Amino acid sequence: MKKVGEIMKQLRGNDTQQKKALEMSVARETISRYETGKDKVNIDVARQYSAKYDNPRFAITVQNEYTGTGPVILDGENVDLHRSAIKEKTLEELEEAFNRLKSTSLAKPLACMELFEKQDLHDSLEELIEASTAISNLVAVVCMESGISYKDLWVDHYNYLISKGFLKGDVTIC
Fold it and tell me: Does the pTM exceed 0.85?
């Protein structure tokens, strides 16, 4: 699993740490510590990188590294990152999650569930998380290959949620 600093180094490309430090208004040593994983990336610097590079792999990795939760960018030896393969895997994961959730009862209070019912609920939630990871990787790969802005997709989504009254209009978007 890649770390935020590794992705920052890749995004920096041939630019020097000094040049990047000047752009981000931090010391060169700070960029070095971020890239080597000695320090966690400051939230302001993470937002600047996110705005500058609009890289979904960076955004997803920041979320995971800071919270220890959420989808991860798949990079194992058994993953096929071709967009068609990811699409098929995402459809498979969505179908499994849909079927599992459909068969899971949420009618009674969760505190009153029997042990087997809680296990069923747990298994359903795991399927949903697997689908979430698949979706995140599909969106990341397609955005990167197509040049569609990952950040703009989220801005559009947040604006939709606000327009429907599902989200208050005070969302901070960098």
Answer: yes
pLDDT, one tens digit per residue, over 124-154 is 999 999 999 999 999 999 999 999 999 999 9
Output the six-digit token pair for 13. Answer: 């490309």
Residues in the chain: 174
Distance between CA atoms of residues 133 and 122, nearest Å: 17
The residue behind tokens 């890649």 is: 2
For residues 65 and 40, the answer to whether their CB atoms sit within 8 Å is: yes
pLDDT of amino acid 169: 79
Q: If DSSP states are collapsed to H, E and C, what string results for the chain?
A: CCCHHHHHHHHHCCCCHHHHHHHHCCCHHHHHHHHHCCCCCCHHHHHHHHHHHCCHHHHHHHHHHHHCCCCCCCCCCCCCCCHHHHHHHHHHHHHHHHHHHHCCCCCCCHHHCCHHHHHHHHHHHHHHHHHHHHHHHHHHHHHHHHCCCHHHHHHHHHHHHHHCCCCCCCCCCC
